[in-house]
Amino acid sequence: LRSWLTVAPLDGGAERRIALPGYPLGVACAAGRVFVASEQDGAVWSVDPDRPDGAPVRIPTGDHPSLFARS
User: Fold this and answer.
1) 7, 13, 18, 22: which has the fewest C-beta neighbours closer than 10 Å?
2) Which helix (H) or strand (E) holds 24?
3) DSSP designation for 50
4) 8-65 pLDDT, tens per residue?
Protein backbone atom coordinates (compact mmCIF):
# COMPACT_ATOMS: atom_id res chain seq x y z
CA LEU A 1 0.00 0.00 0.00
CA ARG A 2 1.30 3.46 -0.86
CA SER A 3 -0.05 6.79 0.31
CA TRP A 4 0.84 10.34 -0.61
CA LEU A 5 1.61 13.37 1.55
CA THR A 6 1.26 16.77 -0.08
CA VAL A 7 3.25 19.53 1.63
CA ALA A 8 2.26 23.11 0.83
CA PRO A 9 4.75 25.60 2.35
CA LEU A 10 3.28 28.66 4.07
CA ASP A 11 5.84 30.89 2.35
CA GLY A 12 4.21 30.27 -1.03
CA GLY A 13 6.84 27.80 -2.22
CA ALA A 14 6.03 24.93 -4.52
CA GLU A 15 3.93 22.06 -3.22
CA ARG A 16 5.68 18.71 -2.86
CA ARG A 17 4.06 15.30 -3.17
CA ILE A 18 5.91 12.68 -1.13
CA ALA A 19 5.23 8.93 -1.26
CA LEU A 20 4.69 7.18 2.07
CA PRO A 21 4.30 3.48 2.75
CA GLY A 22 1.47 2.08 4.82
CA TYR A 23 -1.75 3.57 6.06
CA PRO A 24 -1.29 7.04 7.59
CA LEU A 25 -3.67 8.01 10.40
CA GLY A 26 -2.20 11.02 12.18
CA VAL A 27 -0.20 14.00 10.92
CA ALA A 28 1.68 16.62 12.93
CA CYS A 29 4.11 19.41 12.03
CA ALA A 30 6.99 20.46 14.30
CA ALA A 31 10.56 21.72 13.96
CA GLY A 32 10.27 22.11 10.18
CA ARG A 33 9.26 18.48 9.67
CA VAL A 34 6.05 16.59 9.06
CA PHE A 35 5.42 13.49 11.18
CA VAL A 36 3.00 10.85 9.93
CA ALA A 37 1.76 7.98 12.12
CA SER A 38 1.35 4.78 10.10
CA GLU A 39 -0.77 2.19 11.87
CA GLN A 40 0.10 -0.79 9.67
CA ASP A 41 3.85 -0.11 9.75
CA GLY A 42 4.11 0.31 13.52
CA ALA A 43 6.06 3.49 12.87
CA VAL A 44 6.03 7.24 12.57
CA TRP A 45 7.52 8.63 9.39
CA SER A 46 9.52 11.86 9.62
CA VAL A 47 9.51 13.96 6.46
CA ASP A 48 11.81 16.94 5.92
CA PRO A 49 10.15 18.89 3.09
CA ASP A 50 13.42 20.76 2.40
CA ARG A 51 15.33 17.55 1.72
CA PRO A 52 15.83 17.27 -2.07
CA ASP A 53 14.78 13.62 -2.35
CA GLY A 54 11.92 13.99 0.16
CA ALA A 55 12.64 10.50 1.47
CA PRO A 56 10.78 9.78 4.73
CA VAL A 57 12.73 8.43 7.71
CA ARG A 58 11.12 5.58 9.68
CA ILE A 59 10.87 5.89 13.47
CA PRO A 60 9.75 2.53 14.94
CA THR A 61 7.05 2.87 17.61
CA GLY A 62 5.47 -0.54 18.11
CA ASP A 63 1.89 -1.50 17.43
CA HIS A 64 -0.63 0.81 15.79
CA PRO A 65 0.46 4.43 16.28
CA SER A 66 -2.47 6.64 15.35
CA LEU A 67 -2.39 9.95 17.26
CA PHE A 68 0.05 12.61 18.37
CA ALA A 69 0.07 14.43 21.71
CA ARG A 70 1.95 17.64 22.24
CA SER A 71 3.73 18.18 25.51
Assistant:
1) 13
2) strand 24-30
3) T
4) 878 888 888 888 887 788 888 888 889 998 888 888 999 988 887 778 999 998 887 7
